[in-house]
Specification:
Blueprint (H helix, E strand, L loop, with lengths): L32 H5 L6 E9 L9 E5 L2 E4 L8 E3 H9 L2 E7 L1 H7 L4 E12 L3 E7 L1 E3 L5 E3 L3 E3 L4 E2 L13 E2 L17 E5 L1
Parallel strand pairs: 3-7, 4-10, 7-13
Antiparallel strand pairs: 1-2, 1-6, 5-6, 8-9, 11-12
Length: about 200
């Protein structure tokens, strides 16, 4: 069977599955697994980058697909309520990795140095519908699960720009954050967000 072009499958829902091997791009190149998966309005890309704390060498960015951002609540129950923005910041915060051999430091003197690397997570591509999953289930030492009922507050708009890998001039403010699910074309300036637990 002849390969289907992008134009021929644009509105064919049966051929737009994330595992469809027949999808090709306009250039005629067969779509990669990540490209096929991105047809889903819930799928975006995380950008992971490592940088050396000593010589500032930056490793190539690694992109990983996601369909839900899983956020964690504190297991101590010390807060009556928390803000969604705070949970996102905790999820996106940088992490220091100890005792790693830096390629950049090794290029300078020809030796392998063990140093600290900074691991930074950001959003490389926003999905059409950004979904948050709030993990409320925790396990006690005796194996009994319990639910964290901390109230999560959020406003009607969410500025996603601080969490993006590439900052551009588009206003990434999400105008509404209500209902079970909403989506909008990715080419517009507005991105919908749906928190759920």
């Amino acid at each position: 069977a002849s390969q289907k072009t992008w134009n021929s499958v644009l509105f064919d829902q049966d051929t737009m599955g994330i595992h469809d091997e027949s999808i090709v791009l306009r250039s005629g190149v067969k779509a990669s697994k990540v490209q096929r998966k991105l047809w889903s309005p819930f799928v975006g890309l995380f950008a992971n980058q490592l940088s050396c704390k000593t010589c500032s060498y930056k490793y190539p960015v690694k992109f990983d697909s996601f369909d839900t951002v899983s956020l964690s609540l504190s297991s101590s129950f010390q807060f009556a309520s928390v803000a969604l923005q705070g949970l996102i910041r905790n999820f996106m915060c940088s992490e220091v990795l100890e005792s790693f051999q830096c390629s950049g430091c090794g290029r300078k003197d020809g030796e392998n140095h063990k140093t600290r690397l900074l691991k930074k997570l950001s959003i490389g591509k926003l999905p059409q519908c950004l979904c948050f999953h709030i993990n409320r289930t925790y396990w006690q030492n005796n194996g009994v699960p319990y639910k964290n009922n901390t109230f999560v507050t959020f406003s009607e708009s969410l500025n996603t720009e601080p969490y993006l890998y590439t900052h551009n001039k588009v206003d990434h403010k999400i105008p509404r954050m209500s209902g079970l699910c909403s989506s909008q074309d990715i080419s517009t300036e507005e991105q919908r967000t749906t928190p759920h637990s």
